[in-house]
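Honest question from a wet-lab person: if I give you the sequences of every part of a complex, can you actually get the arrangement of the whole thing, not just the pieces? Trying it with mine:
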Amino acid sequence: MAVTQKLRDGAWRVVELITTPVVPADYLDVIAPLRNPTVLRARIEAVRPETAKAVTLELRPGRGWQPHRPGQYVRLGVDVDGVRLWRAYSVSSAAGRSDGKFTVTVNAVENGVVSSYLLANARKGMIVHLDLPDGEFLLPERRPAKTLFITAGSGITPVMGMLRSALHELSDVVVVHSARTAEAVVFGAELRDLATQGRIRLIERHTRADGRLKPDALADLVPDLFERETWACGPGDLLDDLQEHWADAGAADRLHIERFRTVVLVAGEGGTVTFEKSGLVVDSPGGTSILEAGEAAGQLMKSGCRMGICYKCVLPMREGIVRDLRDGTITTASEVDGDKPLIQTCISAAAGPCRLDA
Amino acid sequence: MTTLQRKEVNPIAHLSPEDIEQIGRELDAIRDEVLAVRGEKDAKYIRRMIAVQRRLEVGSRAVLLFSVLPPAWILGTIGLSIAKILENMEIGHNILHGQYDFMRDPKIHSTTWEWDFAAPAEQWKHSHNELHHKYTNVVGRDNDLGYGIMRVDEQQKWAPAHLGQPLYNFINACLFEYGIAAYDLELGRNLASKRRRNNPDFRARLRQVGRKIRNQMLKDYVAHPALSVPVGLAFGNPFGAFFGTMAANAVANVVRNLWSHSVIMCGHFPKGVETFERTSITGETRGEWYLRQMLGSANISGSKLMHIMTGNLSHQIEHHLFPDLPASRYAEIAPKVRALFEKYDLKYVTGPFVVQVASAWAKVFRLALPNRKPARAIDHTIPPRHPAEATV
Ligand code: FES
Ligand SMILES: [Zn+2]
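Yes, you can. This is the full assembly:
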């Protein structure tokens, strides 16, 4: 064992030498982008429009993928106009497909750069970057006797993943789903099918005609509301309302929610900059570089040219918004996307609160 | 305020400080135009360039497995030389500048890229991006200028050792990658005293260079030659195969060294390029910095292929003005930059490769000898100083 391991390591070292200064996988990437052991990617194998504003992407994940659990999301890294942007999308397919593929369903988000790009440009054969599935919006191993799903708009996506995976193990299922119109219901046909087969009780609410769903109205629709283990996904204000309602009823522990993107970053002038590792918090004015503000407050920071040309001063931004002092370009980062763009602190000024990984 | 090289004629005497700031604003506007369109096209370009380079390298190395056969040796050596040049110049230099950092692709990023060159990327980024590009052509601060071993300006005191500088320059050209590694380490300065020699930071950097060079050497002079031995055996000439491939790699490295050295010499050495004195470039405004880049760089004219093979350093002027913009955009903005030079009556130094190389070498030879007549002590500054002040 030890000898073969040694031989293996030795042989690998030789292969590495052959390709130094890059790693062998970098050459492999040119021909087989899904085979890279350190960079997880996926190929789009099919693109299926669901509604006018939603599209399902069937993905073949590359090496290193781990199957998802129903209800989880994955982060996709998509090159939009040459820039890699990361967004989280719920997995909409059943878990454990034998072909190893999975689907995500992308819903158009207002001013959403990535969603609109995918809706317009996703094609079979396209390569996207991928992260391992994540999220705690899950059905328990011991399936509940009675379940309720409350969803609105794109919030149906993770729930569809759950239904497709586990409906056969659930006996009493109610789905309350809100969408603007009947046509706007993503997976509408499939849901209605399940309802006619009697496998779920489907309550559709079309908000353009009937107005938004209020939690008070739920009791009429689902009389045994609080006896049910409930999963809810949709816009923030709906979830806030539901949480309050369930808490008032003393049933908070029966409600499980999944929030999508919450922060909307708007560029302002200056902001507090938090250096997360050192714990330093600095008030950084709009006209001052983060480098100068940080140094003035005693943060140890690397810098070189201090004029934006050497990239020595870059720090990862976990969350926040900055403005390039030279040309006004805005860069944002948000925790949900999990992307930490490197910002040049010497020419970036805070344009809102920022948290830096330093 | 930057003091220009003392020359008979001050090339910027006609510019007022307001002119200089206006030049800065106009250059910023050109930069903004590129930023507005920078995107997918640039990402595609660099990815394609990397793919082409990797295919060419793998192909050439595959051909060199048959290095016992002379035609294969020649073909493989040519291919590998081109692959190495592309890797260093259009790909390595430009990625390490952060020109493609905007893509947010960790694989093509200045913080992660490593190149096929003796100098480790990290150290090179320091001496090139932080020092050379900031202190361009400032004698004593910009090590690219004569690499600390040559006399590059009439004002520098002549010493008999300078007689040898054409030879040093030639040796440096052949061994360019090691020369760069040495000056990134500031070897001359750091070996001078015991205290500096034992400085742990210097030692760490020395080890880093050592590791890099060892790996590079093992690759080119051991691993790949060994790969061609089986084919050599089949032809009954295993040693010929081993040493043939080794020689091919050595030739490719030297070709790459000579080429990049020449291109870089053309960037800051030909006639008409200004050098600057160290006097207080602190407090230099953005406009003044831009102006120094304009006066301190020279272009090479030529075909698209020429531009690619030089990593677009043939647009050295544009590169020095906008070192962080994708180099493949320089050709596009060059006419606008040139028009700006004309508008402000500045000399846009450019010429064909051969002429520029010859001009740079002529300077190396000329300055190897003492000045024929004493250099006139005229003080030229950015911005131009009042005559009364200038006599100080
Ligand atoms: S210090 Fe050089 S880019 Fe910021
Ligand atoms: Zn450069």
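Two things worth pointing out. Chain B touches chain A through 49 residues (CB under 8 Å). Residues 1-6, 384-392 of chain B have pLDDT under 50 and may be disordered.
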